[in-house]
Amino acid sequence: MTIFELMKLIQTKEGAVNIFRRIRWQNGILCPKCGIYESAEKHSKNRLGLQKYRCICGHVFSDTSGTALHKRRIDVRHFLIALYEFSQTKGITIG
Ligand SMILES: [Zn+2]
Asked: From ligand 1's centre to the CA of 67, what distance in Å?
């Protein structure tokens, strides 16, 4: 993916959130509390469009739980661009 392709995909907040989700949960949705994959159901969405999940253990977490974005007012798009630049220097593929 080039930076231009990334910019195009994250033009909308929804698009950015979708990409973020794809990177974050590439191995499946993982409950940060009990560590079980795919144990959570979709809960509500917050005002940024981030999905919340409720695990069978009762723990509620969101797309950003356990990441640098959690409880910070960083735009997902800024985060993805930073991640992209990081991936370029470290040779990690995203998308
Ligand atoms: Zn759990």
From this structure: 17
The pLDDT tens digits of the residues spanning 1-21 come to: 888 999 999 998 889 999 999
The reply to whether 38 falls in a domain is yes
The residue with tokens 């560590």 is 35
In-domain check, residue 73: yes
Report CA(60)–ligand 1 centroid distance (Å). Answer: 8
Q: Residue 78 — very low, low, confident or very high, per pLDDT cuts 50/70/90?
A: confident
Structural domain boundaries enclosing 28: 3-90
Identify residues whose C-beta is under 5 A from ligand 1, the ion: 31, 33-34, 55, 57, 59
Alpha helix locations (H) across the chain?
3-9, 13-24, 76-90
Number of domains in the chain: 1
